[in-house]
Amino acid sequence: MAIADVAAYAHLSDADVEALGDELDAIRSDIEESLGERDAAYIRRTIKFQRSLDVVSRVIIACTQSKGGWLLGTTLLALAKSVENMEIGHNVGHGQWDWMNDPEIHSSTWEWDMVGVSSQWRYSHNYRHHVFSNIVGVDDDLGFGVIRMTRDEPWEPVNLLQPLRNLLLACVFEWGIGLHGIHSARDRLVSGDGEFARAKGAFIRKIARQSLKDYVLIPAISRSRWRRTLTANATANLLRNVWAYVVIFCGHFPDGALTFTADVLEDETRAHWYLRQMLGAANFKAGPLLAFASGNLCYQIEHHLFPSLPSNRYPQIAGRVRELCDKYDVPYTTGSLVRQYLQVLRTIHTLALPDRVTLTYPTPNGAASCPEEEAEGVSFDPRPAGSVDAPLAFG
């Protein structure tokens, strides 16, 4: 399904789409030109806050004896892990702070606090997901390989299990991301020359380091209270995983977020890429605290338009993007977090059933079939020259 095939957007001529793209380019240029010490101070302050919160939470867990103390410490630890995962790790990995030229806060050096290897994630996420967003058979994030999220994917009996798969994915989301990265590496690298073997080795070593830290070394420091620390670490990881899953799914799969087939890539221009990002993503309403805890991914539309612009600027960008949506009569999909997630659950449970049973249900993610190999004809590659691990050049 090409952009022009979406009936609700047929009013846009090619000239309109290009004009929209020019105005989005202007937003990007304005933000890039205004980046400075205030933005650098924000990310440094965020890192200090996250690390301080991590220490404080662990002290509370280890030093208090009440269940209330354990609950408070574990909740704060889960928040610290969520901030590290999304507002820091995810956004630094996108190259949002590379302009600072700080070797410690750079996409090429930051290793986040989860089992996935950052360099492998940068390829599977920055390239395969952000360049080919919501394209069936190309975007690996479309259901993460275990959940059918569009009728364009043929139904199979195993899909009956996807409500349970969805619950499992939420609980082990960091492992899903890690496996996602290694699967993308398998598709990209040639196993015979040892590259894929090295990628697997890096993944195994990262799993070992994370497991040793969370489930052996830190509990051991607590000595006789190691069980208390161990359960707190496991619970905090679980809460972080579920929260990251909810944020990601609410930004990609509620009603109004469209999916596409590979023919959309034929002659796709920069402006049409922008439009596809706007049609394929969704926001959810959040105050400052909720936005911070989600890595500002409550602004998923803005993030997909400008993935390498600093996340602290998304609220500012959102106002301008929404004005453009009104100007060009393009939907700006948003809603409360609860509403968006309930829509996601409805889609997951409905598409678990055969189409002949649910044909009357108008899922928002339908698309016309198109062979996966057609993606090889992509004529617009927005990557910068050089490594495919590099962040997107224009966002």
UniProtKB/TrEMBL annotation:
What are the GO MF terms of this UniProt record? Answer: oxidoreductase activity, acting on paired donors, with oxidation of a pair of donors resulting in the reduction of molecular oxygen to two molecules of water
UniProt domain Fatty acid desaturase: residue ranges: 70-334
Q: Which domain of life is it from?
A: Bacteria
Renumbered to this chain, region (Disordered) spans 364-395
Q: Which GO terms describe its biological process?
A: lipid biosynthetic process
> Which InterPro entries does this chain map to?
FA_desaturase_dom, Fatty_acid_desaturase
The terms describing its cellular component in GO are: membrane
Cite the PANTHER family for this sequence: DELTA(5) FATTY ACID DESATURASE C-RELATED, FATTY ACID DESATURASE 2
Name listed for the protein in its UniProt record: Fatty acid desaturase
Which species is the source of this protein? Mycolicibacterium moriokaense
Lineage of source species: Bacteria, Bacillati, Actinomycetota, Actinomycetes, Mycobacteriales
